[in-house]
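Researcher: Here's the sequence for the chain we discussed earlier.
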Amino acid sequence: MTILQTYQLWIGFGFVALLVIFLIVAFFGKDKIGSAQVQILRFLCSLCAGFAGALITGEALFKMNLTTGSNGTIAIQGAAGAALFFAVWFTFKLVVPPPDAYNVSIPDGWKFNDTVKTLVKRDGAVADFIGFTQEELEAPLRGQELHTKTLIDSLRALRLLSTATPIREYQIEFQAPTYRLRIG
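Model: Thanks. This is the structure I predict for it:
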């Protein structure tokens, strides 16, 4: 082994070690990894494998043919680092979590207070109504599907579904396990 190969080995090892440390920090640094971060991790993992192949392992061959339908095929070939880069790139699983969403279907004629109690019960909580009149609590709602990001957003939208009695604007506070709906 020549001196040049020894330096290449240590440079490759150092670069790969830095990338692995970065990947560990990126993975454990956040509670939730978004789709853009998954793409960055995919690229960095491929890059890490490519440099490891080029600077540490020496020669390795890679050949891949992709059929694109009626347009023909795509052939990718590489040696050493390129081989491992493409091997990781094409086998990296892209699992993207679904976006935050809260979807609920309100049946026609449900009363405001019963709807709120049903929705918060699904969340393992209870509802506390402060400042509401009996007419507002008993107001029937128009049937509709609500697509919001959170339960609180759905609870805010319920007042707009009232068909008979208008429901005044209210604030919502959550202190586990209670959702407080307060007018004024």
